[in-house]
Amino acid sequence: MTTDSVLDKMPMLFVGHGSPMNALEDNAFSRTWRALGATLPRPRAILCISAHWQTPGSQVTAMDAPPTIHDFGGFPQPLFDVRYAAPGSPQWAARIAQLNAQHPITADYAWGLDHGTWSVLCHMFPDAEIPVLQLSLDLAKTPAQHYQFARILAPLRDEGVLIIGSGNVVHNLRQVMWRDEAYDWAIEIDQLIAQQIEAGNHAALIDYPHLHPKMLWAVPTVEHYLPLLYILALQESTDSVSFFNEAVTLGSMSMRGVQIG
Predict the structure, then answer these.
(1) Exposure of 158 in the CB half-sphere (CA atoms within 13 A)
(2) Quick check: is 20 in a domain?
(3) Which of 39, 99, 112, 252 has a CA-to-CA distance to 163 between 20 and 30 Å?
(4) Contact present, 21 and 170 (Cβ < 8 Å)
(5) Is residue 3 situated within a structural domain?
């Protein structure tokens, strides 16, 4: 895809998206997302790797107008009324598909934007004018394979694409408490993961089950953790690393965000 020149690499984000209600609420998390949107370079497009889209093989949304997907239940009607009407981009989808010649990324015309994407972007970029695409998580890949695969996305940083991984580094819905509290083990593991990120210890983060005796409590299923590996895989030696929304809430849900670059 032909683009105008870009002076610097785009930063990247991992966002702990948490409850879908963050889309409606004015809280510390949503205010931080708004502040980030105001300070980041304006992207030409946004590519989100969301915990909520897993497929056989890798797919990228390729429609002109991706629908807003309400992939949850039991929440109030105003949440189901939210529409994040950002455009898609068949052109950017084709560019992304070109990045993996050996195992092509399939164009998808049926998914759209799930709440891992729109519940964050509705605060970060409320005008919904920037093209947004989602890249699925291949069900067949191991964490190490996801990390290696993510590296094909590196050229996009030079082309003005903001790459966002959306999940939660600690995410155990079976242990949820519906209040703003946190288990000691969830706080400990959230902080341990942050320490490994700061140290650049990607090997330990890929082999995460061995980081802590209760790691599989914190990450009982891998889909909310994998988007972090996509962002780490694209980190370069000159990239700065910073954190935002450094909190664990609902007992067992880390809202930690990471900015790289």
Answers:
(1) 7
(2) yes
(3) 252
(4) no
(5) no
Q: How confident is the model at residue 8 (pLDDT cuts 50, 70, 90)?
A: confident
Q: Which residues contact 213 (CB under 8 A, 6 or more apart)?
A: none
Q: How many domains, in total, are found in the chain?
A: 1
Facing residues of 137 across strands? 54
Residues 187, 214: Cα–Cα separation, whole Å = 12
Question: What are the pLDDT digits (tens) for 61-86?
Answer: 999 999 999 999 999 999 999 999 99
Alpha carbon of 128 to those of 66, 121, 153, 170: distances in Å? 12, 8, 23, 29
Query: What is the CATH classification number for the domain harbouring 237?
Result: 3.40.830.10
What does the angle CA 72 – CA 181 – CA 172 come to, to the nearest 5 degrees? Answer: 45
DSSP of 9-70:
PPPEEEEE---GGGGT--SHHHHHHHHHHHHSPPPSEEEEEETT-EESS-EEE--SSPPBP-
Asked if residue 78 belongs to a domain, the reply is yes
Tokens at 158, concatenated: 């030079």
CB hemisphere CA count around 119 (13 angstroms)? 29
Per-residue DSSP letter, 113: B
Over residues 116-142, mean pLDDT: 98
User: Residue 133 belongs to what domain range?
Assistant: 12-260
List Cα–Cα distances, 167 to 15, 26, 100, 213, in angstroms.
Answer: 6, 20, 24, 22
What span, in angstroms and rounded, lies between the C-alpha atoms of 73 and 249? 20
